[in-house]
Design a protein that fits this description.
Length: about 325
């Protein structure tokens, strides 16, 4: 079995552990984080396969081989842990699975990184705010004004709610530990080599396309959570729906536009738009064109509040799933 028995309950426990403890610095100062280990494997594979003199077709084939290798490693580790506790009496493997799932869900980490931007702005320190936002976005942050810093952090919060919480949780429910490990492996690869630069344009293409596929459902589910939460709370659910309907598909990313558009509409902001990555200027559509570009630290707090409530809605959905599956 790919899916562990009582995977839904394990997921609830993992979400609770992530909320309580997040990413303990004392632990990851002593041991490498699983995502860091994934990054090292991806970097080593890229260095070995992505040679400058390699032909275009050969580079495409090597990118697929590298991708398959990462998937095999992730599935192998996931199956080993899953089968170990299903076919032995040692309950320690159950605890290990809970810990792995908790570590691979980045809920509290998302909140802390985004809130660091808000805190810096509350103390009127734009330099520190730019430094904090540079840790969560890839765009140039040195020249961003206060509003742009706020928008960048809110966009990151919306996208990472999908990538860091909803998607890992969904893939764990669908395919167990192998599913969440494969998702994190591919998502990490996309963040490292999924760029249209001369070095990665061909070799990173396979990882980027598979990451798009793996996030198709989670991104849209995230938008749905945000819209429903906005409708039930102190936000504009109608504008969130309208923004997703009109603007989500205009985003240069196949998936990022969905949570960003929902967030933009709910808060009455215009998000995304033109920005710079390195020396490259990106001309992107605005999400919620009727919204204001003048975001502030209060908007960051509102975004985090909306995500917290949407996360609670996801947890409630899992609880309903547990009860419905046990009583049917």
């Amino acid at each position: 079995m790919l899916i562990t028995e009582n995977a839904d309950i394990i997921l609830l426990i993992a979400l609770a552990l992530d909320s309580l403890f997040g990413e303990p610095t004392w632990l990851w100062n002593r041991f490498p984080h699983p995502v860091v280990l994934m990054g090292r494997l991806i970097a080593a594979t890229e260095k070995r396969f992505n040679k400058r003199r390699t032909g275009r077709f050969q580079k495409h084939m090597l990118s697929i081989i590298g991708l398959m290798f990462w998937i095999v490693v992730a599935v192998g580790i996931g199956l080993t842990v899953t089968f170990a506790w299903q076919f032995t009496v040692f309950s320690g493997f159950v605890i290990l699975e809970i810990i792995i799932v908790a570590v691979l869900i980045a809920g509290r980490s998302l909140y802390e990184h985004v809130d660091a931007v808000r805190i810096a702005l509350e103390f009127k320190c734009l330099r520190e705010a730019r430094k904090a936002v540079s840790a969560i976005v890839g765009r140039n942050s040195e020249s961003l004004d206060k509003s742009a810093v706020c928008r960048a952090s809110i966009e990151s919060a919306a996208e990472n709610f999908s990538d860091g919480i909803v998607a890992p949780a969904l893939w764990y429910l669908i395919a167990g530990l192998p599913g969440i490990l494969v998702y994190k492996m591919i998502n990490t690869a996309d963040s490292m080599i999924g760029y249209r630069t001369p070095r990665y344009k061909i070799f990173g293409c396979s990882a980027a396309r598979l990451d798009d596929v793996l996030n198709l459902v989670p991104a849209r589910l995230t938008a749905l959570f945000l819209i429903i939460t906005a409708l039930l709370g102190d936000f504009s659910g109608f504008n969130a729906f309208r923004s997703v309907w009109l603007d989500a598909k205009k985003h240069r990313s196949l998936n990022a536009g969905w949570p960003e558009a929902a967030m933009a509409g709910a808060l009455g902001l215009a998000l995304a738009g033109p920005r710079e990555y390195g020396n490259e200027k990106i001309t992107d559509a605005w999400m919620n064109t009727d919204g204001t570009q003048k975001a502030n630290s209060e908007d960051i707090l509102s975004a985090l509040n909306l995500i917290f409530r949407a996360n609670c809605m996801m947890v409630l959905s899992i609880i309903i799933l547990i009860f419905s599956s046990r009583t049917s």
